[in-house]
Amino acid sequence: MRYCFLLQVRPDRLDEYKERHRQVWPEMLAALRDTGWRNYSLHVREDGLLVGYVECDDLAAAQRAMAETDVNARWQAEMAQYFTGLDGRAPDEGFLVLEEVFHLEDQLSRTENHR
Protein backbone atom coordinates (compact mmCIF):
# COMPACT_ATOMS: atom_id res chain seq x y z
CA MET A 1 0.00 0.00 0.00
CA ARG A 2 1.06 3.56 -0.72
CA TYR A 3 0.24 6.34 1.74
CA CYS A 4 0.61 10.09 1.41
CA PHE A 5 0.08 12.41 4.36
CA LEU A 6 0.28 16.08 5.33
CA LEU A 7 1.62 17.90 8.36
CA GLN A 8 2.45 21.55 8.96
CA VAL A 9 5.97 22.57 10.02
CA ARG A 10 6.37 25.96 11.66
CA PRO A 11 7.82 28.15 8.88
CA ASP A 12 10.12 29.92 11.35
CA ARG A 13 11.60 26.52 12.36
CA LEU A 14 11.84 25.05 8.87
CA ASP A 15 15.62 25.31 8.51
CA GLU A 16 16.12 23.54 11.85
CA TYR A 17 13.59 20.88 10.88
CA LYS A 18 15.44 20.18 7.63
CA GLU A 19 18.76 20.03 9.46
CA ARG A 20 17.39 17.45 11.92
CA HIS A 21 16.45 15.24 8.98
CA ARG A 22 19.89 15.36 7.39
CA GLN A 23 21.15 13.02 10.10
CA VAL A 24 18.30 11.00 11.56
CA TRP A 25 19.47 8.76 14.41
CA PRO A 26 20.60 5.36 13.10
CA GLU A 27 18.38 3.58 15.64
CA MET A 28 15.37 5.57 14.39
CA LEU A 29 16.15 4.56 10.81
CA ALA A 30 16.44 0.92 11.89
CA ALA A 31 13.15 1.10 13.81
CA LEU A 32 11.32 2.48 10.79
CA ARG A 33 12.73 -0.27 8.59
CA ASP A 34 12.04 -2.99 11.15
CA THR A 35 8.41 -1.93 11.65
CA GLY A 36 7.61 -2.09 7.95
CA TRP A 37 8.12 1.46 6.65
CA ARG A 38 9.40 1.30 3.06
CA ASN A 39 10.22 3.92 0.46
CA TYR A 40 9.53 6.62 3.07
CA SER A 41 10.19 10.23 2.08
CA LEU A 42 9.29 13.71 3.26
CA HIS A 43 8.90 16.79 1.06
CA VAL A 44 8.37 20.31 2.34
CA ARG A 45 7.17 23.55 0.81
CA GLU A 46 8.69 26.89 1.87
CA ASP A 47 5.59 27.74 3.94
CA GLY A 48 6.11 24.55 5.95
CA LEU A 49 3.54 22.29 4.29
CA LEU A 50 5.04 18.83 4.74
CA VAL A 51 4.07 15.99 2.42
CA GLY A 52 5.08 12.50 3.45
CA TYR A 53 5.02 9.33 1.38
CA VAL A 54 5.44 5.80 2.67
CA GLU A 55 4.78 2.30 1.48
CA CYS A 56 3.82 -0.35 4.01
CA ASP A 57 1.40 -3.21 4.37
CA ASP A 58 -0.80 -1.33 6.85
CA LEU A 59 -0.08 2.24 7.97
CA ALA A 60 -1.98 1.94 11.25
CA ALA A 61 -0.10 -1.26 12.12
CA ALA A 62 3.25 0.33 11.20
CA GLN A 63 2.42 3.35 13.36
CA ARG A 64 1.44 1.10 16.29
CA ALA A 65 4.68 -0.86 15.95
CA MET A 66 6.70 2.36 15.96
CA ALA A 67 4.76 3.62 19.00
CA GLU A 68 6.06 0.60 20.91
CA THR A 69 9.70 1.61 20.38
CA ASP A 70 11.62 3.77 22.82
CA VAL A 71 13.46 5.58 20.04
CA ASN A 72 10.21 6.73 18.44
CA ALA A 73 8.97 8.22 21.72
CA ARG A 74 12.21 10.16 22.07
CA TRP A 75 12.21 11.29 18.42
CA GLN A 76 8.56 12.40 18.45
CA ALA A 77 9.07 14.33 21.70
CA GLU A 78 11.98 16.23 20.14
CA MET A 79 10.23 16.83 16.82
CA ALA A 80 6.89 18.06 18.21
CA GLN A 81 8.30 21.58 18.66
CA TYR A 82 8.56 21.99 14.88
CA PHE A 83 4.87 21.41 14.09
CA THR A 84 1.60 23.29 14.34
CA GLY A 85 -1.94 21.93 14.55
CA LEU A 86 -1.16 18.75 16.49
CA ASP A 87 -3.49 19.52 19.42
CA GLY A 88 -1.27 17.67 21.89
CA ARG A 89 -0.64 14.68 19.63
CA ALA A 90 2.81 13.50 18.59
CA PRO A 91 3.71 14.36 14.99
CA ASP A 92 3.35 10.75 13.86
CA GLU A 93 -0.20 10.73 15.31
CA GLY A 94 -1.18 13.94 13.49
CA PHE A 95 -0.98 12.68 9.91
CA LEU A 96 -3.73 13.83 7.58
CA VAL A 97 -3.74 10.85 5.21
CA LEU A 98 -4.70 11.68 1.63
CA GLU A 99 -6.74 9.48 -0.68
CA GLU A 100 -4.84 8.15 -3.68
CA VAL A 101 -6.80 8.89 -6.86
CA PHE A 102 -4.26 7.95 -9.54
CA HIS A 103 -1.24 5.67 -9.84
CA LEU A 104 0.41 5.31 -13.24
CA GLU A 105 1.65 1.76 -12.82
CA ASP A 106 -1.75 0.50 -11.65
CA GLN A 107 -3.48 1.98 -14.68
CA LEU A 108 -0.84 0.77 -17.10
CA SER A 109 -1.09 -2.70 -15.62
CA ARG A 110 -4.87 -2.76 -16.06
CA THR A 111 -4.56 -1.47 -19.64
CA GLU A 112 -1.90 -4.03 -20.55
CA ASN A 113 -3.93 -6.87 -19.01
CA HIS A 114 -6.89 -6.02 -21.25
CA ARG A 115 -4.98 -6.25 -24.52
UniProtKB/TrEMBL annotation:
Molecular function GO labels: racemase and epimerase activity, acting on carbohydrates and derivatives
Annotated Gene3D superfamilies: 3.30.70.100
InterPro entries (UniProt xref): Dimeric_a/b-barrel (IPR011008), Rham/fucose_mutarotase (IPR008000)
Gene Ontology BP terms: rhamnose catabolic process
Pfam families assigned to the protein according to its UniProt record, in alphabetical order: rhaM
PANTHER family, per the entry: L-RHAMNOSE MUTAROTASE
Protein name: L-rhamnose mutarotase
